[in-house]
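Hi team,

As requested, here is the filled-out complex form for the magnesium ion run. I kept the field names the same as last time so the parser does not choke. Let me know if anything looks off before we queue the next batch.

— J.
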Amino acid sequence: MSVAPSVTPKTGDDGVVLSLAGAWIVAAGRALETSAASLTSAARGARNAIIDLTGIERMDTAGAWVIDRARAELAEAGVQAAYQGARPEHALLLQEAGYRPLEPPKQVRTSPLLTLVAAVGETVYTAGLDLIDIIDYLGEIVVMWSRLAAQPLRWRWTSVAHHLEIYSLRSVPIIALINFLVGAIVTQQGIFQLARFGASPYAVNLVGVLGLRELGVLMTSIMIAGRTGSAITAEIGSMNMREEIDALRVMALDPLEVLIMPRLVALAIALPILTFVADMATLAGGLIVSWVYAGMAPEVFISRLQSAIATETFLVGLIKAPFMAVMIGLIASTEGMEVRGSAESLGRCVTASVVKSIFMVIVMDGVFAMFFTAVDY
Amino acid sequence: MGRREVVIRVRGLKVGFGDRLVMDGLDLDLYRGEVLGFVGASGAGKSVLTRTILGLLHKRAGTIEVFGYDIDKLHPQEKLLIGERWGVLFQEGALFSSLTVRQNIQTPMREHLNLSKSMLDGLAAQKLALVGLPQDAADKYPSELSGGMTKRVSLARALALDPEIVFLDEPTSGLDPISAGDFDDLIGTLQKTLGLTVFMVTHDLDSLYAICDRVAVLGHGKVSAVGPIDELLLSEDPWIKSYFHGKRGVVRAGTAAKRPAERAGEGRAQFDRVQGGGR
Ligand SMILES: Nc1ncnc2c1ncn2[C@@H]1O[C@H](COP(=O)(O)OP(=O)(O)O)[C@@H](O)[C@H]1O
Ligand SMILES: [Mg+2]
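And here is what came back:
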């Protein structure tokens, strides 16, 4: 380790001689700062000061800066300071890396209340903009859909198939597992709660209707919003960050057609398939629990299920799936397009994408519930 | 060359991706205080070599010693010390995108040293001035910078801890010739004043002539030639010949070798001015 920086002041006839010694390097940390401060304080009040650099063992750009800053501060306080005995390289360093006064950054003062109000206003405003954005995209996509519908060859089927594999096939295990567990839990709770009324067999109705109408599609949509929506936002967002989207645009390719359409189509196909898988898994969970927990034979479960549900029950869940898919895909891709330069912004947009799509999935499910009740389906 | 201290010693280095060997038994010495220029065709593996020395890529065989430490056998404490003693300018800048320029430059100082805020701000401003950026760049984010500015900020960050070695991967590519010249001047000044050791990958023939003490040529996974530039100019190797005497090299070849000497003289002249100025 090198010797710490030090200052030895000596008062002479026409001013102070400040002899510096040691290593004036940034690695010295605080010692560098305190030595520089003692440099200024020792010479304050004197008429002239000579900064003697002969004893300096090492100096780097940070060292040069603090020494030069001390000199500048002394000059400001009316002390004429000059260097003496600098080695050629140190003199060059003091010149090249020396202190330059910088104007203090302008501080804009605002009251905290104003900031708060402004922040609230901005949030509301951006929420409105988000909505407009999404409607805008939806419109563009409908226009494109109607344009492309006539030319199925221009659909990017390879890309659709690729994304279909990633979104649906790869999600099957987790979706099946989660819905199996949900079906099992609902049935177990149903059997347990309904037993008080001696109505435990009705747990089959519970898991059948609830699972097929709501839980299957809801759990699947939430899972896909988290798993696939975030991936879409991250993919499109990082392409946006690295100017890949701009590259597409200047090639006169529409990012909407090249990137977003195939993902939306793949999602719209994948989600109903996954919902079907989820429905089956929920029922399987119910069947196993009724068998193991309540001793209901599988044949009995199935015949009870047949009387409890109708084709509509199953279709109600399934019809919702493509709408959920388009909603998730739209939110994910608009958020992806929102990503600006930094990694932080990418993270923020991915989070926003997941939170917004889960929220919208639940809102849509509520709207659908009201709608189906109204039309008595 | 004399018996100078070797700060980086690479022996028998092999690095590959899949079944392709990019480095195949490469040997290299970097001496303290020298500027080593590294040239080679695009895709020859210059960035791969740099990244391997920095410990970012795995090697298949060979040894790398930095400051006398074998980088395979470092204690965490030694790793930290080495991190303070070298600085890197990555080819793409590698600035932290969620930090401002000032925070980027302060990151190494903040993490490794205990300095006051005013000192940190002052040093960041100083580093910005050194690399020739205006002070109002300090509050910008990396995504708001041009390619050349990104390079400069990245150099400023690499110099933040006043390292002993800096690795520069194509520092002047993407800069206008004037800025590239300033870059060379800065590196030259730092080498003279701080005894900085520089490992510089470059395609800029001007940089090679202006500041490099030695030039190494990378070819077929090895250093195929290394030496002062005038020696390489006499080489019979076809690639080296076309590199230096090709369409773009031929103009400069005439002025070779004179330049470093001239530059040293300039440094001296500047110094005289300082002394005479009575500061
Ligand atoms: N992560 C990687 N995976 C596979 N190949 C790589 C990787 N990084 C570099 N390469 C290959 O190694 C070779 C050298 O690359 P690089 O060092 O970047 O070249 P340059 O000399 O232009 O800097 C190239 O052929 C490149 O394709
Ligand atoms: Mg490279």
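Two things worth flagging: The interface with chain B takes residues 25-27, 29-30, 33, 60-62, 65-66, 69, 71, 82-83, 86, 88-97, 99-100, 102-103, 105, 241, 340-345 of chain A (CB under 8 Å). The radius of gyration of chain A is 36 Å.

Thanks,
J.
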